[in-house]
Here is the input.
Amino acid sequence: MIFPTAAALGGTRGAPALPAMPSAPLPEQTFFSDPAIDRLLGVTMALAAEVYVLRDRLRAIEARTGAPAAIEPSPDADAAAFVARLFAPLAGEQEAKGPL
Amino acid sequence: MSDLPLDAESAAHQRFVAAARSYWRGPLFRTLHAQARGAPDAGRDLVTHRYFAWLERHLQRMKYSGPRGLAAIAQRSRDALVALPFAPPPGLLTLDPTLVPPAYYTACDIHQQPGGLLAELGAHVYRAGVTGGVVDAATLHERFATRIVGDSRVERILDLGCGFGRGTLAFTRAAPAAHVDGVDIAASCVILAARETPAALHGRVAFRQAEATTSGLPGGTYDIVTSTMLLHEMPQAAVRALIVETARLLRPGGIVAHLDFLPPADPVLRLLFEGHARRNNEPYLLEHSRIDLARAYADAGFTHVEATPFDEEDGALATPPRVWRLPWHTIVARKP
Here is the structure.
């Protein structure tokens, strides 16, 4: 017997393989005073994800060419360090003494 | 992580999202908690709170949706997933093709998982989604099952809303002489749970597709009726129906034991908990928070009703909290 999907076993009546697209736009949740900030942050995060994916693929190519190993010992540690650099400004804290 | 085969780009994307979520619930949460203590309205208007809220909402979206999201990954893997060999022995898996899920369950993509658990590959997507997340502490299910069973001799256990069987299998380990039934409304869940059940447990575990409120299982049978993360997924009327069904299913002296979320007392944590309901598409979480469960169980004839904070891992209840976490509680009552 082949591993059954729910539909094959008759267990999910009309279960869609892919969720149906909503017929109307879904409402947007916003968290800032101007929805433009919410959307721009979405663009920023999409770009950050793309940069990380590119970085990951570059590391893979470097590894094949015998380039020196990355500083971080593992992909998970590398991702954590990348994200820490990305999000550091969110706390609103300065790193040097100075006037406001 | 899961049985979803990831291409290199999707794996990198998911690693980025997981790392971002770790930062969100760790360093960013700690910064927010420190800034919000003593701030007006528990820090609701702090910029850090706005970023925290935005990231909770959108990191979940980035995990599940889009071309590198888990729903699309599962769909691209569909042929491989459905070709996995599986021959459930008699009694292990019972499906109900006539089951029509209640409207409250289909009205919303809970957890922002597109299509929810009722989609064909819903359980695979859900399993990949929870792995490494805020409900995936390695010891959570084992701790709960061990504490509930204790050293009592238990013969029959029922796990309502069993998902893909994590809690069900934990109870089989905590009560090695017991037969354990798992019930879930989603066929994809009970199929995955049955598939993941080790052969050594066949004959001692059974999974059934059914609504928890109308399980169709024999009454007066169970020593323990349990659930994990079920009550907060149900509107108040369904929770009350569940309590009645639980009273029917338990034998005299049996206990009901839920592991679920109750609102925290700390005003900052409460603000984040209440915001989580909306941001994570948990339409009944706040309604659940308002139910007086002790009263509801007492009204149904139960005694010894206790709600106790639950540490899903060592140090989970530390003050101040080390990471943002869901406010786990055990809710236990006894049928006279």
Chain B has 13 helices and eight strands. The first strand of chain B starts at residue 93 and ends at 94. The mean pLDDT of chain B is 93. Chain B touches chain A through 58 residues (CB under 8 Å).
